């Protein structure tokens, strides 16, 4: 078995104590929620905090507040299993429930939280490897090394934003609440991410994600479709989240189409939305939107499957997502 | 005897494995569960280069780290080893050269794993990188650098050329000749349990090694050799394996390393490999490029078949010589092939070594053959199931390459799955995107020859009976999860008329039990079964003799059942089993018997005739139903129907488990499993040595399986049984590929059948091109002229016809293992074993 490195473990019971612990231990400290991302990374020495501040013992972070009519506030510590099975979420935000239910496996969803999911480290086949493996290629830019093996002439890292929850949060227009010693701020989910494999978050390391806020329901539908090798375990090699707002006459008023696992951030494709606005959601507009989503997609060779095929699949899965909203099979209200 | 029709009481009845409860409750101890007082932990430092010379190793910093007890490098263990006597090309730790990323270089024993790991980091190794050999083509084209200084040519480990019956002439008479090229990607076993080993020396200087191995006897030999110990003072205990599938059949460096570390430190030393390290042990499926050409008459009779295979062997020999022969051995046992040529070459590349994985060397050619036949059937305009029925190799026959076939129920297998799957209503009739495909196969029930040349039994069983009424059965066989301990108990219980629970099974221990060669080549039920029956019959005779005198009944009237020995004609005259043993003990003293088994001699006498012969061949036929999504190329397999000719199921529950497990493994190979590496610029690192990224099906991808055991007793099998552990894997990849063609009209001549390949073929087809994905050619390789062996039909005698001198000593010795001894050894072979 791979061994965890030694670290100190701090278990605060309030948000204030967590922030204080972070302030006390400084940059060598990291938060952990379910640990399903952080601990494997620590075993592979991708992340090496000296102090780990557990958020699991903070009850307030596991609460769901308010109402779908006003917008729902979900604590960052709510588990993926909870989100996937919560009746309120399933009724009003089925895309959120579905994305949560498509993450990994049941045991990991029982541990994994939505906060950890939104903040998931970016992934790459050259990075998600043991220390010894990475040493054999002299490491890479994201950790301990100089160059990028995926694009050797590139000045940046192309590690993939691989969260199932993130594209949905961006498509829905959710926002996140970040707290630190200096105060609390609310940021649109879309602005939480950078398109850079190393600096993939705009969140400061000391900031705590307290929760996120889903928009009020009414007048829009949304969905999420995921492509992966197997029906369980696997991270997405492509995720398509879409929200479509309708005029009363059924034509599209606005749309947000977001690609996951295609870039280092959940990639909003405005051109795909433009292809829909003012038109009814039908075969022709869907085909145009899917094509518009396909074009800017530039997968790199650092996940499962070949990159050419993954790019092809953007069109297919973009179409699938919109078809689903059109059929209102499982779309939101 | 019971009232039902079966002549058996225990055999043929579904029963849980004898260790089932221990397994599901966690009571069973695997190697890594073992803890000994004062035990140290071992970690290995592994090479970060695919190919490099070791210029220097400095272990001083590691040795002085507090908590470190000993550090080893290759120079401490200079004697080479390897599973086959002809390929003694491994060292416990590399001495001068590393040959793949992950090759072991140094070892540390310390108080805990963390300290051992920290010490590994402190070992300084200076390397001089060499050019890495990346592929089959690369190896054939490159003389320098060569990975090894032995083999049939630079970077060519083994090459074979055999011609049975004169293929070129026979091909001349054909009305139809078809040639196809196929590629089968490498894949690995992925047993749930990682390899682990624990070594301890007794106060009187004897070594015990516990290891998760399938072949304790061969580990015993390698340990004695490398550590230069009297084999009588070495004890190897095979712990219950959490799966093996061929991946634990070689002796491994880490087993030797912990033994040496334990010797030096005077403390027990344990190692448990990480999942990544298990990928580096590998010994899995060889990536194989194949060309097959068949000539037929217009009405579909095969006249000649010409088969060529190129195997990417990875960095070491392992079982590779045998694997190479196996890619050519079994094409002849399913259908009549009057003339057959096989040419094969195995190369060395800078990757973890390939070896035996379930089906050893035969799934690749089987895929090629069965897809090739599907294409021929279409060309001839015949139904592929019905046509196969017409060209079956008959039972009780000898093939062109001199394999003796006994029972053969493949026809029955075909008709069974054709019927059950509704083949006649589905084939070429399902809507676009849905299809069915059929494929057949055969596998050996144990190799006819041992891995090293000897005349001793392949399996032996010793029974001890005592006054308690309990029986202890001792055998060197190893339960790797397949249930061999249970089979041993069932066979003895059947013969002695007692229950499996009455039998204490003592296996996998070289000190306590007589030799069994190991759990490989589907040999254990066949060979241990025979040995167990012989020992048990002898024991029953001892009891009958004693009880006959006591009851005053003639011995041949006595029978056993229900834990009693009784007069068959007057069952009231009886004694309990325990009383029977007491009577025998009182009369003759301690009661113990032995039994053993050696396979019958095969008629083949040519060089290479050692690979392929078996006491019996199992047969399978599968129909796969697939769904192909045309927009993505994604293939799903909702259902497989499979019939397996097993002769007689010793325990149908275990047999069905093996069939379903084989289907699972075959499905993984067919659809997704790939053992692949980055390019040389990226140090040829393994793509994804983890269980997350090495894709294997989950329960969600697993198909429904409808299995049929076809029971037509095999005269050469114990109670009529044949193998079931490996054969049912073989038809799955070609059945899936043939079904994909039926569904969407494209040929994926490559394993795995990845979605991008299907999509590409579909696009090509739409553009009016060939709807095919796969290799188009094999390398130009100058094989030596094939040795001509006249077939039985030509009145041959099993030897080479073109007069190659063949001394009696060397004859027939290129065994399962491709063992060649002095007379026929390969030029420049590495040092032979001393013993
Ligand atoms: C085998 C496997 C398969 C997986 N498959 C998927 C998949 O298909 N889809 C997918 O999306 N994910 C997948 N994951 C990743 C992971 O399990 C989930 O994303 C999970 O939701 C992460 O949540 P967590 O609470 O366990 O995160 P943690 O590991 O606890 O944290 C993840 C990161 O977020 C930070 N963090 C966590 N909570 C907070 C907070 N409140 N404030 C500030 N920082 C915080 C941590 O410091 C860490 O950097 C998989 C993981 C594994 C091991
Ligand atoms: S994209 Fe490049 S730099 Fe980033 S993790 Fe992968 S190899 Fe490293």
Radius of gyration of chain A: 20 Å
Q: Tell me about the biggest sheet of chain A?
A: 5 strands, antiparallel
In which range does the helix fraction of chain B lie? 25-40%
User: What is the H/E order of chain A?
Assistant: EHEHEEEHHHHHHHEEEEEEEHHH
Helical fraction of chain A equals: 25-40%
| Oligomeric status | heterodimer
Structural class of chain A: alpha+beta
What is the class of the domain at 34-130 and 192-243 and 248-281 in chain B in the CATH system? Answer: Alpha Beta
N-to-C terminal Cα separation of chain B, in Å?
Answer: 49 Å
Widest sheet: strand ordering of chain B: 3-5-1-12-9-10-11
Descriptive notes:
The complex is a heterodimer of chains A (333) and B (835). Chain A is an alpha+beta fold. Chain A folds into three domains: 1-56, Uridine Diphospho-n-acetylenolpyruvylglucosamine Reductase, domain 2; 63-119 and 160-214, 2-Layer Sandwich (Uridine Diphospho-n-acetylenolpyruvylglucosamine Reductase, domain 3), CATH 3.30.465.10; 220-329, Enolase-like, domain 1, CATH 3.30.390. Chain A is built from twelve helices and twelve strands. Chain A has a five-stranded antiparallel sheet with strand order 4-5-8-6-7. A four-stranded antiparallel sheet of chain A has the order 9-10-11-12, sandwiched between helices. Chain A is globular. Chain A starts with 7 loop residues before the first strand and ends in a 6-residue tail after the last helix. Chain B has a seven-stranded mixed sheet. In chain B, strands 30-8-13-14-15-7-32 form a seven-stranded mixed sheet. Chain B is globular. With 835 residues, chain B is an alpha/beta fold. The interface between A and B is medium-sized, with 28 and 35 residues. The structure holds flavin-adenine dinucleotide (FAD) and iron/sulfur cluster (SF4). Flavin-adenine dinucleotide (FAD) binds at residues 30-38, 40, 55, 76, 80, 103-104, 108, 111-113, 115-117, 119-121, 163-165, 208-209, 233-235 of chain A.
């Amino acid at each position: 078995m791979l061994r965890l490195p030694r670290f100190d473990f701090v278990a605060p019971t309030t948000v204030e104590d967590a922030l204080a612990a972070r302030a006390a231990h400084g940059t060598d400290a990291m938060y952990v929620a379910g640990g399903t991302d952080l601990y494997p990374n620590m075993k592979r020495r991708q992340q090496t905090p000296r102090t780990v501040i557990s958020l699991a013992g903070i009850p307030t972070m596991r609460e769901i507040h308010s109402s779908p009519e006003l917008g729902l506030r979900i604590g960052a510590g709510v588990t993926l299993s909870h989100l996937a099975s919560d009746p309120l979420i399933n009724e009003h935000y089925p895309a959120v429930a579905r994305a949560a239910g498509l993450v990994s496996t049941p045991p990991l969803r029982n541990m994994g939280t939505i906060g950890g999911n939104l903040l998931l480290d970016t992934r790459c086949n050259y990075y998600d490897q043991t220390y010894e493996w990475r040493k054999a290629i002299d490491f890479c830019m994201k950790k301990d090394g100089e160059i990028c093996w995926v694009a050797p002439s590139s000045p940046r890292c192309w590690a993939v934003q691989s969260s199932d929850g993130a594209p949905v949060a961006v498509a829905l227009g959710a926002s996140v609440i970040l707290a630190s010693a200096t105060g609390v701020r609310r940021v649109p989910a879309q602005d939480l991410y950078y398109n850079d494999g190393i600096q993939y978050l705009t969140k400061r390391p000391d900031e705590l994600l307290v929760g996120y806020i889903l928009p009020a329901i009414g007048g829009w539908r949304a969905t999420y479709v995921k492509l992966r090798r197997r029906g369980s375990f696997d991270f997405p090699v492509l995720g398509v989240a879409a929200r479509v707002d309708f005029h009363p006459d059924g034509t599209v008023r606005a749309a947000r189409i977001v690609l996951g696992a295609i870039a280092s951030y959940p990639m909003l494709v405005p051109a795909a939305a433009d292809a829909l606005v003012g038109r009814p959601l039908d075969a022709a507009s869907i085909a145009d939107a899917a094509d518009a989503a396909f074009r800017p997609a530039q997968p790199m060779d650092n996940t499962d499957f070949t990159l050419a095929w993954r790019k092809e699949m953007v069109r297919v899965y973009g179409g699938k997502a919109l078809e689903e909203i059109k059929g209102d099979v499982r779309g939101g209200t | 005897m019971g009232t039902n029709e079966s002549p058996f009481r225990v055999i043929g009845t579904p029963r849980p494995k004898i260790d089932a409860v221990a397994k599901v409750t966690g009571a069973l101890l695997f190697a890594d569960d073992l803890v000994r007082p004062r035990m140290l932990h071992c970690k290995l430092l592994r090479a970060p280069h695919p190919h490099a010379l070791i210029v220097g190793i400095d272990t001083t910093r590691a040795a002085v780290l507090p908590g470190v007890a000993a550090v080893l490098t290759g120079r401490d263990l200079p004697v080479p080893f390897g599973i086959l006597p002809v390929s003694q090309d491994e060292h416990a730790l590399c001495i001068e050269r590393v040959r793949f990323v992950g090759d072991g270089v140094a070892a540390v024993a310390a108080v805990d794993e963390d300290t051992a790991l920290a010490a590994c980091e402190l070992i300084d190794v200076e390397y001089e990188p060499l050019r890495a050999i990346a592929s089959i083509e690369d190896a054939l084209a490159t003389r320098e650098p060569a990975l090894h200084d032995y083999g049939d040519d630079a970077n060519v480990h083994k090459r074979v050329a055999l011609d049975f019956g004169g293929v070129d002439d026979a091909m001349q008479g054909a009305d139809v000749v078809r040639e196809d090229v196929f590629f089968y990607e490498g894949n690995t076993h992925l047993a749930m349990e990682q390899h682990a080993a624990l070594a301890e020396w007794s106060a009187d200087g004897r070594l015990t090694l516990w290891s998760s191995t399938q072949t304790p006897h061969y580990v015993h030999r390698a340990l004695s050799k490398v550590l230069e110990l009297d084999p009588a003072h070495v004890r190897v205990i095979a712990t219950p394996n959490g799966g093996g599938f061929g991946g634990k059949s070689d002796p491994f460096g880490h087993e030797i390393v912990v033994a040496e570390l334990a010797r030096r430190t005077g403390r027990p030393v344990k190692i448990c490999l990480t999942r990544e390290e298990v990928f580096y042990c590998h010994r899995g499926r060889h990536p194989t490029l194949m060309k097959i050409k068949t000539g037929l008459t217009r009405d579909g009779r095969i006249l000649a078949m010409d088969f060529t295979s190129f195997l990417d062997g990875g960095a070491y020999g392992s079982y590779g010589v045998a694997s190479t022969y196996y890619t050519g051995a079994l094409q002849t046992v399913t259908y009549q092939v009057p003339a057959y040529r096989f040419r094969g070459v195995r190369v060395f590349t800078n990757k973890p070594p390939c070896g035996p994985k379930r089906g050893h060397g035969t799934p690749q050619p089987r895929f090629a053959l069965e897809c090739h036949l599907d294409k021929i059937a279409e060309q001839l305009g015949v139904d592929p199931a019905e046509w196969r029925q017409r060209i079956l190799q008959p039972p009780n026959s000898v093939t062109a390459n001199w394999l003796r076939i006994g029972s053969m129920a493949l026809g029955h297998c075909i008709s069974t799955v054709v019927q059950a799957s509704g083949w006649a209503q589905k084939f070429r009739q399902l809507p676009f995107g849905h299809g069915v495909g059929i494929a057949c196969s055969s596998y050996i029930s144990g190799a006819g020859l041992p891995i090293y040349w000897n005349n001793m039994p392949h399996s032996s069983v010793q029974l001890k009976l005592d006054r308690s009424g309990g029986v202890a059965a001792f055998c060197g066989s190893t339960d790797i999860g397949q249930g061999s301990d249970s089979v041993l108990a069932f066979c003895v219980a059947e013969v002695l008329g007692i229950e499996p629970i009455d039998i204490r099974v003592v296996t996998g221990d070289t000190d306590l039990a007589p030799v069994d060669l190991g759990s490989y080549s589907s040999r254990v039920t066949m060979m241990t079964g025979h040995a167990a029956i012989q020992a048990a019959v002898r024991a029953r005779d001892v009891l009958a003799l004693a009880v006959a005198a006591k009851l005053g009944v003639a011995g041949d009237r006595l029978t056993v059942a229900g834990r009693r020995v009784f007069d068959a004609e007057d069952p009231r005259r009886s004694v309990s089993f325990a009383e029977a043993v007491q009577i025998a003990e009182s009369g003759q003293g301690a009661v113990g018997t032995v039994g053993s088994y050696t396979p019958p001699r095969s008629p083949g006498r040519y060089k290479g005739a050692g690979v392929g012969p078996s006491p019996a061949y199992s047969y399978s036929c599968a129909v796969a139903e697939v769904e192909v999504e045309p927009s993505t190329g994604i293939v799903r397999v909702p259902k497989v129907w499979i019939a397996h000719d097993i002769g007689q199921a010793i325990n149908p529950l275990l047999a069905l488990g093996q069939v379903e497990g084989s289907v699972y493994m075959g499905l993984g190979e067919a659809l997704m499993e790939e053992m692949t590496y980055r390019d040389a610029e990226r140090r040829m690192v393994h793509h994804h040595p983890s269980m997350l990224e090495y894709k294997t099906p989950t329960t969600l991808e697993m198909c429904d399986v409808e299995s049929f055991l076809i029971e037509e007793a095999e005269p050469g099998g114990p109670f009529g049984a044949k193998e079931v552990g490996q054969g049912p894997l073989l038809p799955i990849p070609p059945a899936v590929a043939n079904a994909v063609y039926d569904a969407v009209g494209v040929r994926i001549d490559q394993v795995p059948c990845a979605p991008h390949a299907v999509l590409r073929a579909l696009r090509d087809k739409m553009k009016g091109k060939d709807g095919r994905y796969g290799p188009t050619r094999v390398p130009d390789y100058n094989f030596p002229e094939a040795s001509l062996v006249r077939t039985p039909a030509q009145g041959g005698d099993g030897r080479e016809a073109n007069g190659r001198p063949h001394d009696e000593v060397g004859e027939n010795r290129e065994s399962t293992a491709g063992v060649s001894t002095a007379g026929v050894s390969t030029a420049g072979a590495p040092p032979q074993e001393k013993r």
